[in-house]
From TrEMBL:
The keyword Hydrolase does not apply. InterPro entries: Uncharacterised_YfhO. Keywords: Membrane, Transmembrane, Transmembrane helix. This is Bacterial membrane protein YfhO. The keyword Nucleotidyltransferase does not apply. The chain crosses the membrane at residues 15-35, 86-108, 129-146, 152-168, 180-212, 232-253, 305-323, 330-349, 369-388, 400-424, 436-456, 463-483, 871-891.
Length: 898
């Protein structure tokens, strides 16, 4: 007993117990959910942990998952920072069973957040009780729990904010560079956690914070530069293992065809200024607190702004009283800047300015910066509590608290008058009856005022401790119901069962494709939210942030996607046309099974191919498209079209400069589908353009028009415009029904190619972009279309025997009586290497998407290996920086001892 007492009194032991306490709080809250066989995440959270499980499984099988062959026909897994596969905490606890892995992962991050929030408050000269309380209510705040648990990548990133600030604050107080190194290490861990947007925002705010105090402390320009370089080089050097391959991947995808983040995408979910009311009254806009009135640019983070009415009252009072305090001064400025950025869509011209800033303009949901706003709020709360405890002017806080309570009451009355009378929303009138949503917050303000009064009068530690207890109680009374909101899924979601095993057997060695024009079909499927990687069921679908654009261009008439778009391959807008008119595309991608919930495949399993020109539907000799400086231009002409028929649009166009893209489409009153939207990228000079559309289930006889639509920024002279019906040849029995259940019909694609297959002909294309334009007329089943390769016909189809296959490689014995061309149906990526009998050979981009090699006659061992050179380069830099840090640390320690 005495030993235990001495151990608790030891400073290191106290820190361990403190960390353990913050760990146990969420662990015990959610332990019951885990023991019931469920996990407390759903949706995005399922996908997030799916990546972790895939990584763990691969390591257990003795393979490092550089490549993931199960998502989107193959993705460079270790290159993508958003998967968080190199995050040390994930690796350290990877041995745990799935359900406890999730629980411990979350609890560990809450412990990190609470523990370092506590230490940060101590560094700001708050006492132990106040620091403990701030750490506790910080980890139980809504933005650390609630439905945000479904975005576990965000949580595991933002928990590092107090860690980084703690070490920065230690540097500010001591001027010892080692704390900048520790801060850089924490920033590296935050980066590796998997949500780069929040890490990037933290880097900016921390950089401003550090520079402010460096200047305030008059360190001098040389010292600022020197220490700043140590800080920055530590951070950048340690993340190179992930940063270098990620930048390489992004440049690769850009070269394959991506566009910048659209402006509307950037400013989407920008929070409204009126949401500040929710910091006082959380349901002021009704029970649907995430999107009141359906307001555009209303962030999903709304309820997370609510920290508790008592907290906002004390924070406002603290800002007024402590406005000369150095932390409060810079903190208030940062809070204002953070909220303005988060609300940029509501400030004229600000969005346009921010959008043009490199890196910053590539993100969406600007309100994801608000965890930094919340962190500063909690920090100011700690300072005002410490001031209240120590100052002789205790009645000053009481006066401001009373005034604040009166102001909150006036705000409540105004809201009640305006909103309950239906001025803003008639739907809220009933909800506002009796003003009950305002009573609780006002009563809490009164309780806080009474507590301040009692401590001001008696000034005893016991009363102050009770006051802190009341503050925590009333805060959790308000926030815990939101914090504890979560949807559960069974932990068996990730496990193989009889139905999943049967589906896996159906798929065989090929891909499955959920051919849906709606995201829900994939999300609710057996492989939804990337569970296919865990269950080892390869598919074309995936739910990832950074996507290879080639498959999208093949399936969407050469529409070029943006690089950063979660969910690009969760749905296929032209799925009906893809199935019926692009069997060759599906077959060369190895799609063996198609899951259909929307009747995209007809009863006969029909696929259509395109023949020769048949009839000219309409033509126009001249069409002038004026320079409208980006405004909308529309040309339309009535047409009669047939169901499931190919049509060609052809014209010549001349422009004195690149005028931007236009698109051709067919539309009518009940007929306007993405499959008939054809993107045409007009170039400078005079050129001929040809594109094709497939009508799917058009409403024959309806009023349908053919349109050319664009936002031209230069004059375009279009001549010889023609709309031509093409010969359309149906082939039945291509798709064979093999199973039906749970509203899904599964079909076998009888033309599906194997993972490795020989092709009969190689056809040279001058521009790879033409492949995406001409997908309807190209024969991907028998031909390989390659840019810069001589035409070759009648190639040997050879024999293939796979010897070994892993997630990063495939080896086969092939035999050709004469020269052949071997296709590997995984996505092309420049870090794949191919070897014939151990000698490296050139890999070509085939059909705009997959990869292939030329094989000489005879018997050979062929191997495709994923060799991520960029990863090795980045890893080498990180290793060197890590060694330097360790060596210097050892040297400094020995020197200090001497």
């Amino acid at each position: 007993m005495n030993y235990l007492k001495k151990m608790i009194q030891n400073d290191k032991s106290k820190l361990i117990f403190l960390f353990g306490f913050y760990f146990l709080v969420p662990f015990l809250i959610y332990l019951g959910t885990i023991l019931s066989g469920n996990v407390f995440v759903s949706g995005d959270g399922v996908g997030f942990f799916g990546f972790k499980i895939y990584f763990n499984q691969s390591i257990m099988q003795g393979q490092f998952p550089f490549w993931n062959p199960y998502l989107s026909n193959g993705i460079p897994f270790a290159m993508d920072q958003s998967f968080g596969q190199l995050y040390p905490i994930s690796i350290l606890i990877s041995w745990l069973p799935l359900d406890f892995f999730i629980l411990v992962y979350y609890s560990l991050h809450m412990a990190i957040a609470g523990f370092f929030m506590n230490l940060f408050m101590r560094e700001l000269k708050c006492d132990k009780k106040i620091s403990f309380v701030i750490g506790l209510i910080y980890i139980l705040s809504i933005h650390m729990g609630g439905y945000r648990k479904n975005h576990m990548g965000i949580i595991s990133t933002v928990v590092w904010i107090p860690v980084i600030f703690y070490f920065i604050q230690r540097y500010i107080h001591t001027k010892r560079v080692k704390f900048l190194v520790f801060s850089g290490i924490a920033m590296a861990l935050q980066f590796l956690a998997g949500f780069i947007q929040c890490a990037f925002y933290t880097d900016i705010i921390v950089g401003i914070y550090l520079l402010y105090f460096m200047i305030q402390d008059k360190l001098g320009i040389k010292r600022i530069i020197k220490d700043g370089l140590v800080w920055g080089s530590t951070y950048i050097g340690l993340v190179c293992i992930q940063l270098v391959p990620m930048l390489f991947m992004m440049s690769c995808y850009e070269s394959l065809g991506t566009i910048d983040t659209p402006f509307e995408f950037f400013k989407g979910w920008s929070i409204s200024f009126r949401k500040l009311l929710m910091t006082i009254f959380p349901t002021v806009f009704g029970p649907d607190y995430s999107m009141p009135y359906g307001h555009l640019y209303s962030s999903e983070i709304d309820i997370e702004l609510f920290l508790g009415t008592a907290i906002i009252l004390l924070v406002v009072c603290g800002i007024i009283i402590l406005h000369k305090h150095s932390f409060v001064k810079i903190g208030l400025l940062l809070m204002i800047g953070i909220y303005i950025y988060a609300a940029n869509a509501h400030i004229p011209y600000l969005s346009e300015i921010l959008y043009r800033i490199p890196l910053l303009g590539g993100f969406r949901v600007p309100s994801r910066i608000l965890p930094l706003f919340i962190f500063i709020e909690f920090s100011i709360l700690g300072l005002v509590l410490q001031y209240f405890k120590e100052t002789a002017k205790k009645t000053q806080l009481l006066s401001y608290a009373v005034i604040g309570t009166i102001c909150f009451t006036i705000i409540a009355c105004l809201c009640y008058i305006f909103i309950s009378n239906g001025i803003f929303s008639s739907n809220l009138s009933e909800f506002y009856k009796g003003g009950r949503i305002f009573v609780g917050p006002i009563v809490i303000c009164i309780i806080i005022c009474i507590g301040i009064y009692l401590y001001s009068k008696y000034e005893t530690q016991k009363i102050f401790t009770i006051f802190l207890g009341v503050l925590v109680s009333v805060t959790l009374f308000q926030t815990f119901p939101y914090y504890h909101m979560y949807a559960t899924v069974s932990s068996k979601e990730y496990m193989m069962d009889d139905s999943k095993k049967a589906l896996k057997e159906l798929i065989g060695v090929g891909n499955i494709w959920y051919a849906s024009e709606k995201q829900q079909a994939y999300f609710t499927s057996e492989i939804g939210f990337n569970k296919g990687a865990v269950l080892e069921m390869p598919s074309l679908n995936s739910y990832v942030s950074l996507n290879n654009p080639t498959m999208y261009r093949l399936f969407n008439n050469n529409a070029i996607p943006q690089l950063n778009f979660s969910g690009l391959y969760t749905w296929f807008p032209a799925a009906r046309a893809n199935v019926r008119a692009q069997n060759g595309t599906l077959s060369m991608l190895g799609v063996n099974v198609i899951a259909d919930q929307e009747n995209v495949i007809d009863e006969l399993g029909t696929s259509y191919t395109m023949g020769m020109e048949k009839n000219t539907i309409f033509e126009q000799e001249i069409l002038q498209v004026p320079n409208l400086e980006g405004q909308l231009f529309v040309f339309s002409n009535p047409v009669e079209v047939k169901k499931n028929t190919f049509y060609k649009v052809a014209f010549d166009a001349e422009a004195n400069k690149a005028p931007g893209s236009v698109y051709f489409d067919l539309c009518g009153e009940n007929y306007d589908r993405g499959a008939q939207d054809v993107n045409i990228y007009i170039k400078e000079g005079k050129h001929h353009y040809e594109n094709y559309v497939f009508t799917e289930d058009s409403d024959e006889g309806a009023n349908i028009v053919a349109r050319i639509v664009g936002t031209p920024i230069a004059d375009i002279n279009i001549t010889n415009l023609k709309f031509i019906e093409m010969e359309t040849i149906p082939y039945t029995g291509i798709y064979e029904k093999i199973y039906e259940g749970n509203g899904t019909v599964y079909y076998r694609n009888n033309n599906a190619k194997d993972l490795l297959y020989f092709t009969e002909n190689v056809i040279n294309v001058q521009d790879r972009g033409k492949i995406y334009n001409d997908v309807y007329k190209l024969d991907f089943i028998n031909n390989s279309y390659i840019e810069g390769y001589d035409d070759k016909e009648g190639l040997d189809l050879g024999e293939i025997k796979i010897i070994d296959q892993g997630i990063n490689s495939i080896k086969a014995q092939v035999e050709c009586s004469e020269e052949g061309f071997l296709n590997f149906s995984q996505n092309y990526y420049p870090e794949w290497k191919a070897f014939i009998d151990g000698v490296e050979t050139k890999i070509y981009i085939v059909n705009g998407s997959i990869q292939g090699i030329s094989v000489p006659e005879g018997s050979h061992i062929v191997e495709f290996k994923f060799v991520p050179t960029s990863f090795y380069i980045g890893g080498s830099i990180t290793l060197v920086v890590l060694i330097i840090i360790i060596v210097i640390s050892i040297y400094k320690t020995k020197k200090h001892r001497v």
